[in-house]
Amino acid sequence: MKRISLAQGNGGRLMQSLLDEIVFPHIANEYLNTLTDAARVPTSKRTAITTDSFIVTPLRFPGGDIGKLAACGTINDLSVSGARPEYITLSIIVEEGFPVEELENYILSFAKTCRENRVKVVCGDTKVMPSISNERPALILNTTGIGEVLRDDLSLTSIRDGDKLLISGPIGEHAIAVLLAREDFGLSGSLVSDCDSIGSLAKTLLQLDGLRFMRDPTRGGLLTVCHEILLGTKIGVSLHESYIPVRETVKGACDLLGYDPLVLACEGRLLAVIAPEQSQQALERLKALPQGSDAAIIGSMSKNSDQVLLHTAWGGERILMPLEGDPLPRIC
Amino acid sequence: MKRISLAQGNGGRLMQSLLDEIVFPHIANEYLNTLTDAARVPTSKRTAITTDSFIVTPLRFPGGDIGKLAACGTINDLSVSGARPEYITLSIIVEEGFPVEELENYILSFAKTCRENRVKVVCGDTKVMPSISNERPALILNTTGIGEVLRDDLSLTSIRDGDKLLISGPIGEHAIAVLLAREDFGLSGSLVSDCDSIGSLAKTLLQLDGLRFMRDPTRGGLLTVCHEILLGTKIGVSLHESYIPVRETVKGACDLLGYDPLVLACEGRLLAVIAPEQSQQALERLKALPQGSDAAIIGSMSKNSDQVLLHTAWGGERILMPLEGDPLPRIC
Asked: Could you tell me the fold of the domain covering A6-149?
């Protein structure tokens, strides 16, 4: 089995061969020029920029891998900010000893997701880190996404009292799928990560002028997004537990392991805040797409409170505090 | 001493506090919105994009640190591609246990370099990695730069037979300064890294229509750039050893340690290819700037050969092969 060597990170011929072999063929496009220091691309007047580093253990999990994740994560951040994803960069940070074929598989997965979303990989970087432990060699991917701003008005400050909160599907599947894939718990299941592009979900909502704000609840989960909304609007967020879609397997795993689905990361869900008079229309638009079949209106903005409040399934009310320490094993 | 904890990487309140304390105050600008998934910025029709991950040991060295390096590296890549650097992203990948104050110092250094170059930090990301060894906790920075394309014609394919090669200053200082800072060799010296922005050097050359191509000789050094030029043009590169500026301390360290200055990384030098009739003018322009006082014409393009040829100081000729394995300790 061929493995990554330190010499492949020195900027010389070996690195060029590696990239020519396992990277460039998969991401070729008219803007990717492997011989310049920067890509030159056409842009419009208003451009959205986002960046993210991806660390996940294991690197492959049911429903995805680090390559798909690195593409979706950045494409989704552009999508929820009201932009059309156009370009993406790929920085590979790999530890010496990493299997070359496995790396190529992640690149393939990254490239496929970019292609499906019509996003062009325009530049990249590769660094090889010396191995410092006996653990499995590490791989970190960093991506920066660039896109055309379609809606410049989406913002926390656009949110009004009475606005509705929508989620495009069940929460926590990515986090639990990754945790189960670690096999640290002796649990296994058929759960698949929700890791996916939410571009089409965002696009259909962009057509509604009552749309105020969108976000994908990744690290910190739905709860963290609700607190960001509270912080940015000073308007209370009121959630209805029984409306929040959570699959039975996620509920079961959470019960067993003592986690709260509300803080679990999703990687293919969209949270939208929308004017009440367009919330039903928004829900129908989401439900019309395969990825949105389980979409739900899960709460609303309420200036009567200055908290994130959960109306429990049993008719009670619970104040949800922001995620503080780290209640769950790190998945990213 | 406060140290980075895993909980500060979970996307919750602790991470927000950390960023509010040691990152955002230093990089504030009108486009940095800490509450959205993507920054929205004005762009022009043609945009240059580049990305780079920065790994350096030690994190601080004479003349710079990883923060300055992460800013200069990306600003320089935009500059040499004929663009005006406008925006930069900052992804922090830090191992738990890393001293918080030290991290802040690198952010300060990054921010200062960006400010000096009028580049705005528009978005970022922070990930905390679990510690996997007893070594000093690691820090990796990734930056993506975005800028307005000022000259779309700079390219390897613009290079012609007879064109001259210029370097803006002595080579190899960054590599040797970093190596000496490691103190692995029992050597020490007054050598300072050349780590710096080359924006003003690039800008002054952009005004010459005879300018064909620019690059900063980082990983792989001047030799690797010459081979990229050879590969991209199929025209031979002819270098004159005695014209290539190398400081005595770099020469001395290379003699002692057995390295070739031609493969050593610079982080603040510019290599330009320019039409022969404008090469003197270009040299004068570089020399008129403090960073270019030691600039020199070091060679020319020659279709009489299909090699990178070094005319030695002793009147001989040597074919320079591309950097193959890794002849020098890794500095990045």
From this structure: 60s Ribosomal Protein L30; Chain: A; (3.30.1330)
Residue ranges of domains in chain B:
6-149, 156-319
CA distance B143 to B283: 31
Option in B12, B129, B227 nearest A55 (CB): B129
Token pair for B60: 């601080």
| Residue of A15, A30, A31, A37 to mutate when probing chain B, most B C-beta within 10 A | A37
- How much is the pLDDT for A326? 60
For Cα atoms A203, A246, A311, give the angle at the middle one, nearest 5 degrees: 100
Q: Rounded to whole angstroms, how far apart are CA atoms B112 and B126?
A: 19
pLDDT tens-place string over residues B43-85: 999 999 999 999 999 999 999 999 999 999 999 999 999 999 9
* CA–CA min distance B242, chain A (Å): 24
Is-contact A128 A4, C-beta < 8 A?
yes
CA distances, A41 to each of A122, B52, B85, B146 (Å)? 8, 18, 14, 10
Q: What is the number of residues in chain B?
A: 332
- The rounded distance, in Å, linking the Cα atoms of A244 and A169 is 9
Dist. CA A309–CA A317, nearest whole Å: 7
Å between A57 CA and nearest CA of chain B: 11
Half-sphere exposure of A103 (CA within 13 A, CB side): 28
Domain B156-319, classified CATH 3.90.650.10, yes or no: yes
Q: Where are the alpha helices (DSSP H) in chain B?
A: 13-22, 24-27, 66-80, 100-116, 173-181, 199-206, 221-233, 248-257, 276-287
Rg over CA atoms, chain B:
21
Closest CB from A83, A133, A326 relative to B6:
A326
Residue B107 to residue B115: CA distance in whole angstroms = 12
Res B326 pLDDT > 70: no
The single residue listed with the structure tokens 């599947």 is A173
Do A67 and A108 touch, CB atoms closer than 8 A? yes
Q: Report DSSP letters for B258-301, one per residue.
A: T--GGGS--SS--EEEE-HHHHHHHHHHHHTSGGGTT-EEEEEE
Measured between beta carbons, which residues in chain A are less than 8 angstroms from residue B119?
none
**Nearest CA to B144 among A39, A216, A79, A127?**
A39
Please state, in angstroms and rounded to a whole number, the distance separating the CA atoms of residues A103 and A60. Answer: 11
Q: How many CA atoms lie within 13 A of B45 on its CB side?
A: 3
| ipTM of the complex, rounded to two decimals | 0.93
- Residue A21 parent element (H or E): helix A13-22
Q: What angle do CA A88, A152, B33 make, to 5 degrees?
A: 70
Dihedral class, residue A111 (left if φ above 0, else alpha if ψ from -120 to 50, else beta): alpha
Q: How many CA atoms within 13 Å lie on the side-chain side of A206? A: 19
pTM recorded for the entire structure: 0.94
